[in-house]
Write a structure and sequence with these properties.
The chain is mainly beta. The chain has one helix at residues 74-77; strands spanning 2-5, 9-12, 19-20, 33-38, 43-48, 55-59, 88-95, 104-105, 111-114, 120-122, 134-135. The protein has a single domain, classed as BH3618-like, CATH 2.30.290.10. It is built from 1 helix and 11 strands; from the N terminus they run ββββββαβββββ. The longest helix is centred in the middle third of the chain and has 4 residues, at 74-77.
């Protein structure tokens, strides 16, 4: 299928590459379908299929906080078919301000993606010390 994007031009993607967020992403609940695009190093982009202008910069939170670990109640991820932790891929959304050195990552509300069925959910962690605006600059593992 063809996905039109503002930042990456027109992309040809297989339907099997689409990630579905049944509940959407916080603030963007109406947008349900995304594709994951590789970026530079550990960075990637979650591009909305339905909205050419909507792209999230994302990263594996383990690059920011070594040992980043989620303890998510089963009921939070059952709806996307995750029964075992190995089925989950975890991403965190990055906010990039005008001054890139001030970019932050949201470690408190990661994206949990079922690698098998490509269904996903944003989970808000309430019992962790992870922050909404954790600094990225100087914390990214440069070997990635």
């Amino acid at each position: 299928m063809r996905v039109m994007t503002t930042r990456f031009g027109d992309l040809e993607v297989a339907e099997s590459e689409i990630i579905t967020f049944p509940q959407g992403i916080l603030g963007f609940e109406a947008v349900k379908h995304y594709i994951l695009l590789e970026g530079t190093g550990p960075f990637g982009f979650l591009q909305a299929v339905e909205e050419p202008d909507l792209t999230f910069a994302v990263i594996d939170p383990g690059f920011i906080v070594p040992g980043y670990k989620l303890e998510v109640p089963k009921h939070e991820v059952e709806a996307i078919g995750i029964a075992e932790p190995e089925q989950a891929a975890i991403l965190a959304i990055i906010t990039i301000p005008a001054e890139p050195r001030e970019m932050t990552v949201n470690l408190q509300a990661p994206l949990v993606i079922n690698s098998s069925n490509r269904r996903a959910k944003q989970v808000v962690l309430t019992d962790h010390d992870y922050g909404l605006r954790h600094p990225v600059f100087g914390t990214v593992d440069q070997s990635a």
